[in-house]
Amino acid sequence: MNKLNAIPMPGMEGHNLLGFLATLGVFYELDQQAPGEVRLSWTRHRSTWSPVIWCACTSTDGLVNVLVKRLCGTPRPVPPVVEQFSDLKFTTAEFRELLQRSNEDLPLLAALATEIATEEGQVQDTGFRTMAGAGHQHFLGFARYLIENVSPEDLTDILFEPWKYQNDGYSLRWDSADYRPHALRGLDPSKDKLQSVWWANRLAFLALPLFPCYPSARGLRTAGFDLNRNETFSWPIWTESITLDVVRSLIPLTNAVFERSIGVTPRGVGAIYQSQRFTEGKYRNFTPGRMVG
Predict the structure, then answer these.
(1) Residue 45 is inside which H or E element, if any?
(2) Which of 9-23, 72-86, 179-193 has the lowest mean pLDDT?
């Protein structure tokens, strides 16, 4: 194993669901290059938690260069399911076909849906899906746009500086800042352009394979979401540097332990946050992260 160097990423904030998912996206992508040789921990930074990635890179520039090389090559790495579909509106037959002819994309497919069908014959999909085509908002279509259009020059600021929200639209709606309630605005927010952080959303999409869907007695569930209604997402902030495989185990364990033993925090976890998914109008949104453990 190569010597691991600690590289803080203070641009990512652990209390923000999008920040947490984007951090895991960085972690997941680096682990694809060096399986089992990358670690991630969190440390207190100002009023929140920020991640520290442990990898073979020796500098922030080295980390950025690795990610840019993997994510911004020609052509851009667009998964087949993202290339073929704009929304998660495929039938069980289409989903089975995708599973049968897919190799590298199996973890992503397992995170997007299962073969459990709705009454309309479409697959039931992930708890992270926030849009389904209404209002020209397309979950996989937006992901495809982000994959193809993020600029390499912008990545450094997203990882190491406070986010500036300078991109127009194309948000996957995992940031609570995307929700702009009418009651708290002087003007109709639906007429305002949504400013987002493209790189954060692009990196967050990379993390989806860490949250597979699975059937339960109550229907489809997504790892990390509550066991009852699949609407409350809980995520841990851990203080020890751990591998991606440990994270895969920790995410569902955190939710299960917290649901069964209120106030109990798993060993090595510095905090647990929760966010509620809700629907208003045409879209789903997530509430700001709330510390619950």
Answers:
(1) strand 39-45
(2) 179-193
